[in-house]
Amino acid sequence: MLEKLQTYLLFGNIFCGVEHNSQQTVEAVLLQKKNNEVIIKDSFVTLTVEEIVQKLPKKQHVFLIVNNDDVLSKYIQSTEKQSNQLLFEAFPNLKINDFYYEINSQGSFHEIAICRKSIVDTLIENYKKQYITIIGFSLGNTMTSFVNGFIEESVYYTSNAIITKENEAITGIQLIENPPNKTYIVNGLEVKSSELLSFSGVLSHTLQSKKTVSNFEEKETELVTNFKQQRFFSQFSMFGLGFVLLLLLINFFVFNSYYTTVEEMKQTAAVNSNQKEKLLTLKTSVEQKQKTVDDILKNSSSRSSYYIDAIATSLPNTLQLSALKYQPLAKRIKKNNPIQLKKEELIISGISTDSDLFSDWIQKIESLDWVVSVTVADYGAVSKNNSEFTLKIELSDE
């Protein structure tokens, strides 16, 4: 549930794929996540970036397909598995540092698409100037790998190619001019052949799945990171303003409630002096209970300081404590019932970045003469390198 909320706050429920194709047009498809399903919300064709921006929702993020004359594609048969070797087989004299490349491998058949980095980066920058963020991109017809298994036809078309397949594997791709505009059923959705690549690109991003190999993973990571930062700033500003307004509203109601209460208390005190005596009695009772609590804390302060100092001294750099509870409550506090504490218990919570040092630290704690036992109450990963933990330490009653 939390992951879905984070995804919604970051990307929303509208996703867009855009293809710049060989016909010098821009094909766009908008997908919408609705009730755990993906539907086609809209599609349209324009001639320029400026025109497509006018049709997109404000600050819409886009997955870009570059499939125009700036992209070179070759299709080879090879048993080679290494992407660099496949690249040099297709383009022997290529200066790889100047180009983005993407490879779609289907058994021994490989589709290799390349484009100069400067061309793709300039196109991304043009969208950025129009306040449209590119969050990923693909080259040529390589994105057909994502929808190939959903299309029943053995021969199908994209905006500039005819693709043949056998046993769910692509066996041939041929670039053609003015391909027929067909309609295909892709997992229950009707998709035009001219929109197939933009649909495939945005769907792969929506489902966080990519079947091709490329040298621009770092570039895509950078694009997504920049988008997250922009989105966070935008959301933070909006929520910040809402939070300030909410505080003002709460302050108004609290003040109004407090003022009304004070007036009622003044009237009640003036009319009925007995209520004043009851208030004084309650105040005395509260002060007595406060004194009792202070006495408990005073008696245990020296021992707790000793335990905390010992634990802090043994703490490795890979651990960060978030909570330390000495003599936690045994039961919830109830009215007219004495407060019950687990007097010989200490609970520690925090985050560990090294499981080995975490285990060594537990052993150090167990070796302390005032520790009876150490129990790991909770230990679980919260990210790739971080794990949350909770320890219960039984103390000696000496």
* End-to-end separation: 47 Å
Separate helix tally: 9
Mean pLDDT metric: 83
Name the helix and strand elements from N-terminus to C-terminus, one letter apiece.
HEEEHEEHEEHEHEEEEEHEHHEEHEE
- Radius of gyration, whole Å: 33 Å
Taking strands numbered 1, 2, ... along the chain, how are they ordered across the largest sheet? 3-2-1-4-8
Helix content: 40-55%
Structural class: alpha+beta
How would you sum up the global shape?
elongated
What percent of residues are in strands? Answer: 25-35%
| Poorly predicted spans | 1-6
How many strands?
18
Which sheet architecture does the biggest sheet show? 5 strands, mixed
What report would you give on this structure?
By secondary structure, the protein is an alpha+beta fold. It has helices spanning 2-11, 49-55, 83-90, 117-129, 144-147, 196-206, 217-271, 273-314, 355-366, and strands at 14-21, 26-34, 37-46, 61-67, 72-77, 99-106, 109-116, 133-139, 155-157, 161-166, 169-175, 183-186, 189-192, 213-214, 319-326, 345-352, 371-381, 387-395. The chain has a 5-stranded mixed sheet, with helices on both faces. α7 (217-271) runs antiparallel to α8 (273-314). The radius of gyration is 33 Å and the shape is elongated. Mean pLDDT is 83; it is low at 1-6.
How is this structure best summarized?
The chain has 398 residues and is an alpha+beta fold. The protein has helices at 2-11, 49-55, 83-90, 117-129, 144-147, 196-206, 217-271, 273-314, 355-366, and strands spanning 14-21, 26-34, 37-46, 61-67, 72-77, 99-106, 109-116, 133-139, 155-157, 161-166, 169-175, 183-186, 189-192, 213-214, 319-326, 345-352, 371-381, 387-395.
